[in-house]
Amino acid sequence: MKLKTKIIFGGVIISAIMLLSCARKNPPRDEIPILKDVLAKFEQAVKAQSAAQIDSLMIAEALELGYNSGRILSEIYPDTGQGTFYTFGKRNFFYTKDKAVVNCLIMADSLDIGRPVEITLVKTGKSWLIKRFDLK
């Protein structure tokens, strides 16, 4: 083969390898609606102050690490369970194929500047579950 042909062939091979490696690192975008749905269910459970619903959205490992509905509700509603919760606002999602981090704000109303929180989720099978809930 001529040198020019070898260089072109080598470039095509390198490009193909790079594309395949990028495809494995970047998870499909169809995970975003699923993550948003889990966060919406979590938000509704927090609004209802439903310990059972919150715990059902958490992976067992989270409970072992001390993350449970009682702790989460006491951090969101710090005044002995009283107060208001409006939403998890200004959400930013970062995820791989089996781990996601949602940085957002705990807001008491639409004008609240919020308290930053980082919610970590993990994928088990086809489901995303909450692993950590850390105020920042």
Give a written overview of the molecule.
The chain is α+β, with helices and mostly antiparallel strands and 136 residues long. It has one domain: NTF2-like, domain 1 (Nuclear Transport Factor 2, Chain: A). It has 5 helices and 4 strands, in the order αααααββββ. The chain has a 4-stranded antiparallel sheet with strand order 1-2-3-4. Strand 2 and strand 3 form a beta hairpin. It is globular, with a radius of gyration of 21 Å.
Features:
Nuclear Transport Factor 2, Chain: A; 43% helix; alpha+beta; 4-stranded antiparallel β-sheet; 27% strand
Low-confidence stretches: none
Strand order of the largest sheet: 1-2-3-4
Q: Please tell me the overall pLDDT.
A: 85
Give me the secondary-structure category. Answer: alpha+beta
CATH superfamily: NTF2-like, domain 1
Got a strand count? 4
Count of discrete structural domains: 1
Number of helices: 5
Query: If you compute it from the alpha carbons, what radius of gyration comes out, rounded to the nearest whole angstrom?
Result: 21 Å
Q: What's the layout of helices and strands?
A:
Blueprint: H1 3-25, H2 31-47, H3 51-56, H4 60-64, H5 69-76, E1 87-95, E2 99-107, E3 115-124, E4 127-135
Antiparallel strand pairs: 1-2, 2-3, 3-4
Short description:
The chain contains 5 helices and 4 strands; from the N terminus they run αααααββββ. The protein is an alpha+beta fold.
